[in-house]
Write a structure and sequence with these properties.
The protein is of the alpha+beta class and 347 residues long. The protein is built from 9 helices and 11 strands. It has 2 domains: 21-130, PurM-like, N-terminal domain (60s Ribosomal Protein L30, Chain: A); 145-324, Phosphoribosyl-aminoimidazole Synthetase, Chain A, domain 2 (Alpha-Beta Complex). Residues 143-315 form the PurM-like C-terminal domain.
Length: 347
């Protein structure tokens, strides 16, 4: 804010700590909303890696309920250990994936920066100028709200398990609980989910009067829930009862002794939105997002509640694991989404 100016509740500001910064502009009652993100490759397909990187950047806007993006920049680091042939094949595919995802989100990449580095890095910047009614500040959860998650957990586990297929020492630790085919299917499902934009969920946040949201990425569902809880104006806490997880990933997490998937600390990449919704709207949100009018692949689950508390978040001792079947798997009846009964993960 300009020196000496008082915060204006009509034009809220948001700084470091949440998904995007919201900066009131000097004129016109508008706000600048901006975010940046980058990371290292985690899938083998460079085109899909570009799409995932773009979806991950845009997700920070979508977590604010923003559905439009005015401009994107792409940040790309090409590895100095790549041959010239590898650079010429891989780099254009990553750029195309990023640009295609941006186009799907109704925006365009107008510039950026490319450097040579020891590692491949891919990411970007997303910028939009908004009126106040176009974004939802992540601070208005109330007691009785319901927590909804729009993508299954387990992306890091799936990606790592796929890498372990070629690492006998690691594979031998998990091959009693999962088959190679199940790992391949989980990897494809994770890749598809990571490349899916959270734009539909962002639009429905307005339709169903969302009170706050964040996206689930590097700190896992527990870390991001705790961060969102700290932002709340009311004295509330979040309690998570259900964990929708890509099928078999909970078993891999337990067998490997890594990740902390059932504890909510396993990192996700380009994960779903965690949204605080009024109790009477949550089930309708979950039903609506699955409608065919939004295309294939959108899902949502009720995962917890908002109760009176001191702005913390926790997962109950024995959360119910909802095994989310990969789309390529043989369909079997899934357990109803709205039960809070605790159970061990099915194997």
């Amino acid at each position: 804010l300009p020196a000496g100016a008082e915060p204006n509740p009509t034009f809220p500001a948001l700084g470091i700590g949440m998904d995007s910064c919201v900066i009131p502009l000097r004129h016109g009652g508008l706000s600048l909303v901006q975010t940046t993100d980058f990371f290292y490759p985690l899938v083998e397909d460079p085109y899909m890696m570009g799409r995932i990187a773009c979806a991950n950047v845009l997700s920070d806007l979508y977590a604010m309920g923003i559905t439009e993006c005015d401009n994107m920049l792409m940040l790309l680091s090409v590895s100095q250990s790549m041959t010239e042939e590898e650079r010429e094949k891989i780099t254009p595919l990553m750029i195309k994936g990023f640009r295609d995802a941006a186009e799907e989100g109704g925006t365009a990449v107008t510039g950026g920066q490319t450097v040579v580095n020891p590692w491949i890095i891919v990411g970007g910047v997303a910028t939009v100028v908004c009126q106040p009614n176009e974004f939802i500040m992540p601070d208005s959860a109330v007691v009785g709200d319901v927590l909804v998650l729009t993508k299954p957990l387990g992306t890091q586990v799936a990606v790592n398990a796929h890498q372990w297929l070629d690492n006998p020492e690691r594979w031998n630790k998990i091959n009693m609980v999962v088959s190679r085919e199940e790992v391949e299917l989980a990897y494809q499902e994770a890749m598809f989910n990571m490349a899916t934009l959270n734009r539909t969920a962002a639009g429905l946040m307005h339709t169903f009067n969302a009170h706050a949201a964040t996206d689930i990425t590097g700190f896992g569902i527990l870390g991001h829930s705790q961060n969102l809880a700290k932002q709340q104006r009311n004295e509330v806490s979040f309690v998570i009862h259900n964990l929708p997880i890509i099928a078999k990933m909970a078993a891999i997490s337990k067998a490997s002794g890594r990740f902390g998937l059932l504890q909510g600390t396993s990192a996700e990449t380009s994960g779903g939105l965690l949204i605080c919704l009024p109790r009477e709207q949550a089930a309708r949100f979950c039903s609506e997002i699955k409608s065919s009018k939004y295309g294939e692949g959108h899902q949502a689950w009720i995962v917890g509640i908002v109760e009176k508390g001191n702005r913390t978040a926790r997962i109950i001792d024995k959360p119910r694991v909802i095994e989310v079947l990969p789309r390529g798997a043989t369909a079997t009846a899934l357990v109803p989404d709205n039960s809070n009964a605790a159970s061990e993960p099915s194997s």
